[in-house]
Design a protein that fits this description.
Layout (H helix, E strand, L loop, with lengths): L1 H8 L4 H26 L5 H9 L3 H18 L24 H24 L17 H29 L3 H21 L14
Length: about 210
């Protein structure tokens, strides 16, 4: 087999040699793009610092959702982002990258949010709670449902936009992370239905 392979590569027919070389280059390019996107850090340095500071699950999910919103914005995909106050300088520059890289970022941000919530669900004792000396510190029973609902609200915004992108995207490499993100959104939206009804606190009358 080694002899035959060597014979093909070193053939006296220059056309065959050129075709073989092009085939190798195209194969390499095809494999490199998605692998590079998947191994790329899906958070900027500033975002990593914000994640480290957001120890409580509700705050962490809020950071992950905003990080995803930023990437949708860079991609110019309208996900009906809520109007909010000006982003603080702590967020740093907007994320950069090729379209497929940013799509993989979104996929991984959604997966991290799901994983963080699942970890708390399976090991509630590991949850980091606000300082008990704070005035009216919230309990995990309050923080956990809030985190799930925050993520579900984002998933409900993302789902129609992702479906639209899936319908118009012909690049199979890009369709992969879009499909994965869609599945994550559906899982998130379904999970919120398992929460107890939200209790709306009414303001006390004077």
């Amino acid at each position: 087999m080694k002899v035959e392979t060597k014979k093909v590569i070193t053939s006296s027919n220059p056309r065959k040699a050129i075709i073989f070389a092009l085939f190798c280059l195209l194969t390499f390019a095809f494999c490199f793009t998605p692998a590079n996107a998947q191994h790329r850090d899906f958070l900027t340095d500033s975002e990593i610092e914000l994640i480290r500071d957001a120890q409580e699950i509700d705050r962490r999910v809020e950071v992950l959702v905003h990080a995803a919103d930023r990437r949708f914005g860079v991609l110019k995909i309208d996900v009906q982002t809520p109007v909010a106050k000006k982003e603080s300088d702590a967020w740093g520059e907007l994320p950069k990258g090729e379209r497929i890289e940013l799509l993989f970022d979104i996929k991984r941000l959604l997966q991290k949010a799901i994983d963080d919530i699942d970890n708390i669900s399976e090991r509630p004792d590991s949850a980091i709670l606000p300082d008990p000396e704070e005035k009216h510190p919230k309990t995990l029973a309050e923080l956990f449902p809030k985190a799930v609902r925050t993520l579900a609200a984002a998933a409900a915004r993302y789902k129609p936009a992702l479906q639209k992108e899936l319908d118009i995207t012909t690049d199979q490499m890009q369709r992969g992370p879009i499909l994965d993100s869609l599945e994550s959104c559906e899982l998130i939206i379904e999970s919120v239905t398992k929460l107890p009804a939200e209790v709306v606190k009414q303001k006390k009358k004077n």
